Amino acid sequence: MENKIKDIIAKLTLEEKAALCSGVSSWETTPIKRLGIPSVNMADGPHGMRKEVYEASFTNLFDKSYLATCFPPAATLAFTWNRDLVYKMGKALANEAKDQEVAVVLGPGINIKRSPLCGRNFEYLSEDPYLTAELGIAYVDGVQSENVGTSVKHYAVNSQEFRRLISSSEIDERALREIYLYAFEQIVKRSNPYTIMSAYNQVNGVYASENKLLLKDILKEEWGYKGIVISDWGAVTDRVEGVKAGLHLEMPTSGGERDAEIMRAVKEGALSEDVLDDLLADLLSFIFKCDANLAKNKGFKADYASNHILAKEVANEGAVLLKNDGILPLKEGVDLAVVGKLAEHMRYQGGGSSNVVPKHEVSFLNYLDTLGVKYSYSPGYTIECDKISESMIKVAANSTIGKDVVLVYVGLTDDFESESFDREHLEIPKAHTKLIEEVYKVNKNIVIVLTGGSPSKVSYYDKARAILYIGLTGESGGESNYELLTGKVNPSGKLAETFAIDLEDELSNQYFGLPFAEYRESIFVGYRYFDKAKKDVMFPFGFGLSYTKFEYSNIEVSHKSLKYGEKLTVSFNVKNIGHYFGAEVAQLYISNKESKQIMPLKELKGFEKVFLSPGEEKTIKIGLDDRSFSFYNVDEKEWQIEGGEFDILVGSSSRHILLKETVFHKGNEKNVADYTLIAPSYFNLEKVESIPLADFEHLLGRNVNPYIRPTHKKYTMNTCIGELHPKGFARFFRWIAKIGGQRLGSAGKQTKAKKKMLYEGTLNIPMRNLYAQSMGRVSKRTVEGLLLMLNGRFFKGLAKTISGLMEKRADKKETYGDAPELVDND
Ligand code: BGC
What we know:
alpha/beta; about 30% helix; five-stranded parallel β-sheet; about 850 residues; 25 strands; disordered C terminus; binds beta-D-glucopyranose; about 15% strand
């Protein structure tokens, strides 16, 4: 193969080489028919196939794709803590990809949940890097075992939606390595994903898609990555710098604009053709591998009915029982009231590029009806309106009078969290909390069924006898809810993120939502912060109840004392001492007791999910290695172990530790700077309320890159539409852009959430993307003209805009024709 590729590269013209570096369309790589280079395709997304029907149409975004199984999104998937189940889901996703002739699934999303406010948290797994890595590996291995590629995204430090295409994540190297890169590193080393998707944002002032440190030094040289890097859709600013840094493929097509830039750079000597050839060798081997897979997979028929059942299993294991005084499971024949529109209109996924058109969606009410279960129902609120309707709430509350149990469906609706915008607070809609209050006045037997892709404020805790957090359920939510509430299935999910009592309790909150995101909390993300600051939380990381009870005993370690290079095995027993069959996720944390470093109190380093019948006991063994005990020594640029005593903590959540052993590790650390002097606040999180800029800059080793909003008439290609000051032509232009943004998704169902997503998304678009993401409809020249107009040179700009509009754009897609009509895949 290597020779074949060398041969092809030798025959490619410069034009063809440049053309290969970007797509031919939204989803396909560029073919070079003359040399037998095929085109391979990709489709979103992490929790189900979103293969668009008319890939080139701008108005059908998110609505018109082939029907597919909608599995629970990553947030709920992570609550399963079940590697085998995630692997199985990966295989099922791949099977649907094969059925739909897709070569690469654009997932998993493994960004770390830095703040509950990130609108896209529902697409990500956890606040913890170890859990993210373990589940990410299972996902990638599952998909790739079926000869379908993955795209692990978004590399890296992409934890907010606000100004996501221009923001800079300002982050110190320890947080980068230990928290934000860890899962990427592990997945690359252990699963060799076909592709990595580079993020939209900058990392420490350099765009991720042209970041040599991330793409070349770390990913390729340090981790030995063999696959290719694809830009997130529209993430490229400087394509030539991207080529130099190691970005193989720009997606979607730029309609030939970037091809011209690459060619010019080679001709002018600014880019060596050898560098381009190196990238092409990786890219071609990826294309040929995918093409061979597509040939092997042709004619494959996925079993969508089994996948629907698998989606239910994921929803079952992903539900977290947050409170229960014994009212659950529901007794047989119970006189049941259901209130809350979310029971009827279940939120089975989040909004944006991951939006699957489900093949077979079943709501809770649908399922009760199918089974012939008797219940009363009243919606209490509408999905799209946060305003309280006193009359609807009154009717709903009255409908619960005298009922044995009231299931109150509440939670985050689509316009509260989505791709494209972040949340502003932790609250669920006011109408939902009011509904709980009014029901409580007439019936105290309340079971809250909570929906959401990210934690919300649980102000109603005392009013509920039980709270079942169903997350985002995927298409089988109705069946899953029924099985969990009735005890047919025993809840076994555990939170993969902390539920804070209030937003103000989160340290990151003070630094979240800025155009340039200062990651001042450093490694203190999620429970790492709450533990160190000794703050109470609503529900801790790793928490989740069951209908049965488990007993932990008999912890043993293979060594009491260890040297660098030695492995440790920890074993302990878990016994089901209750009356229901159930599953427990036993969690192992390590605490570096005597650290002189900036160090969390404990960190997750192992877990195992065990399924146990009543009375059954199993021994769990967890292996630990050097890395489990290491921290990243930024002064030495190495993972090292600080010698001393470490507690091995085993428990049922991060705050419910049941077993403990202590081991001594000889360690191997060298030359560590004394951070107690240069960044004292990190040692004192219990007392300090914020991190002084000086401390953070000491960690960074430089000043923070400041965000400077472009002033009126000083706009550049990287200026976002939302940054334009509404004056003169810029005001008119913003208005036009808003209308254009709405047109983008104008086909299909127009919901408030979708409109908000498109509007906010438009404000976050930089000028450069008006051509780079236009699929060849808009030329760079046109946008240069617009910029001149925005910068006060109206007539010169107008002339350029018009001449740009008249340019004949290369249609890289011409040879392919339209995609087929929407079909059911039976
Ligand atoms: C998202 C990616 C997605 C891509 C293609 C982007 O906006 O950030 O996660 O895979 O679109 O739909």
